[in-house]
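Let's do one together. I've listed all components of the complex below, 462 residues spread over two lines.
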Amino acid sequence: MQVPAQFEYQRATSVEHAIALLTRYGPESRVVAGGHSLIPMMKLRLAQPEMLIDINDLTELAAIRVEGVDARAPGVTGGGELRLGALLRHAELLAAAEVGELCPMLHDAERVIADPVVRNRGTIGGSVCQADPSEDLSGAFSALRAVAVIQGGESARTVPVREFFTGPYQTVVGPAELLVELRIPLRPGGSSAYVKVNRRSGDWAVAAAAAALWLDGDDTVTEVGIGLTAVGARGFVAEEAEDFLRGLPATEENVVAAGRIAAQHCNPSADQRGPVDYKRHLAGELTSRALRRAAARAREVTWRSPSP
Amino acid sequence: MEITVTVNGQEHTCEIEPRLLLVHLLRDELGLTGTHWGCDTSNCGACTVWMDQVPVKSCTVLAAMADGRHVRTVEGLEGPAGLDPLQLSFMSCHGLQCGFCTPGMLLTARWLLDHNPDPSDREIREAISGQTCRCTGYENIVAAIRHAAQQAQQ
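Okay, and this is what the predicted structure of the assembly comes out as:
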């Protein structure tokens, strides 16, 4: 029987209360939400917090808000923001039609995260705070250039998700801080896709790629974000491939070349999911596939900026 | 710590250690052994129960997290009129062999049919993709769930 080591347990009644508890109990305390990363680690004694602070009652952290745009109105100009509460369950993100319309990559990713029952419980904030190198949303939010809102005792701060991860299982969230929201900037004329290869349904990725891109009327890539999962990419991002593709037409040749560049610059390690060569090959191929799918979707979107 | 959990409509107050998992509360403290304890890693789904109307894997939920909440186990499927129609379909379609995965299958399938009364086979397979059957009985499990859906439509 796998049983966690002993700990104390408290339920937070508000964000302020959660932070007060974190402040009082210090680095030996841990926040638990869905618990589907932390509790298995506690059962294996890889994590042994002395105080567990349960934030499941903080439903104010489970909102989905679209700010500044009406996604359903064609021809809308300007930008906006998709704001996702950290306590959103994976299943809730997958069920939200507006998320699928504005950021289809998030629905692509959610469909292949674990299984439906696990998705009922696991949260998006928990996933990114776990910072597992094989976790799917880290690459997705990085590709989307999302911004993390981190609440501390005095005030909140914002950190680009690309600067959020400091290493495997490590983030910039301090011991008395709480990730409360992820904000995704929205601009017209773009779309996104997430493509993953895993050995079994619901398993962690062997490799996966996330692509968000924006096209102008001539099919030129005006901006692009490429995220990579499980292949040792710095900050989960393929920056060299982004730099290559920005300003070029979204042709098959360029999409394939961007994949090749992404493969060159990632740093996978061999494990039970496959050798380095195979993972590097996947990184390139999946980057190209994600870019291709995102470009096809971007050509279809009704939410476009009008021609100048 | 003291918790109060409503299981299948009945309130239970228990003194527990915070590290007790919900599956062990149900089986060892409350004697509800219909919930099976399988892989212990939230992969197999044998321990699936409903918490506040949503299927969850009870090996990865602390009993403390269920304090003040409503839990439904396989024992709670049977109503005043007898077994749930889904249970009857599992019987008539041979949707089980050893029966170890059955409680989790039933609770996940009940939730599916409550939210999607006429699912396609693909939707059924997706819904039970977090439940492992090692008797390789998926064909009959899918047939049983489809049968229950068809019975309810009539």
